[in-house]
Amino acid sequence: MNHERSRDLYDRALSVLPGGVNSSVRATRPYPFFVERGDGGHVIDADGNRYVDYVMGYGPLLYGHDMPEPVRAAVQKYASDGPMYGAPTEIEVEHAEFVARHVPSVEMIRFVNSGTEATVSAVRLARGYTGRDKIVVMRGGYHGAQESTLVEGGPDDPRPSTAGIPGSFAEHTIPVPFNDEEAIVEVFEARGDEIAAVLVEPILGNTGIVMPVDGYHEALRELTEEHGALLIFDEVITGFRVGGLQCAQGKFGVTPDLTTFGKIIGGGFPVGAVGGKAEIVEHFTPAGDVFQSGTFSGHPVTMAAGHEYLKYAAENDVYGHVNRLGEKLRRGITEICEDQAPEYTVVGTDSMFKTIFTREAPPDLTGQCEAGCRQRSDCPRYDYCPKTGADVKNAETERWERVFWHRMKERGVFLTANQFESQFVCYAHTDEDVEETLEAYKEAL
Fold it and tell me: Any catalytic annotation for residue 309?
């Protein structure tokens, strides 16, 4: 493949953008390819190279790069009527009503502008509602670029995970390992009356894809209720992708107090949202005393896109198609890994997938999870598959970024550029795309 124009564009970008990009994950080595346009389940780069796209904008593009006609028509209508008004519009009410009808935890919702803004607002709301300061987060979880959650270490030694955050900010955050019920029980026994909320992704989606072990979310639900804390599900990634219109909370049968959204809920446009019990969400201003506001919140074009996105999914077999292809991909990759790299773990559910380059395998793979790790205790991989973010970080992460990603790109398959970010199937993908991808996996592994 020729990448001369992408290289030249990156050279220009380095002069005006830090690191040549506007989001760190886009800075692939030695330089990223620049996308010129999307086409269904594919992207075409600045040099005319075509790729099957499983990045899907890091999750928002349930339909790929071609909007269904009702979505396109709504976007064009609302954009032509005027970009925004600084006043309420009917479409934001309709979108809120749709979400509240389908998502178990949502009685009331506040739309914001990004997943980060949603989690910032949810943390502030939890603190204001409970009158407590401490927040429990999962090590390896990701809740956007915000000070309260960019924290590493353990319950007794939390510290910022990036420069630019005062150490005092981390003092109110308690990191625990995902899937470790004993660890969080100990935290609540010691400090339960200080904890405002537990903030957790139903599935770790930014550190590989790590599924919960049996009973973990139920334990979180019981602990928070017992101690008067809130349970917040961060469904920025899983919302309206895992579990269909009920989201991951519907799939797992656990209803949180608050849920944060982003990505798909905005139909591919910038968005975030905080939804939950009315008695809690009404503490946002102007109804309550927890300040939250935003110039672009409830943007009419975004609301129209998101509303038509979800309506189209409700009226068509969108989830049946993407979930079937997701399972086909995971099954195919599992078979390839069993033959070529038995130590690797295939992960994901519904339309999400990834291969974690874990380092060890059981002596016999008979009876392993066939279409992505399910944390089955009777699976021969159970003691070897990732349970926490640390398990994923201990995998062969450099091999993914420096070797495997490039091999797949050379074969016309666009995957997320590191071991940690999720990958997604869209409605525009086909069985032929999956088969092409599996052939590329055979060659690249």
Answer: no
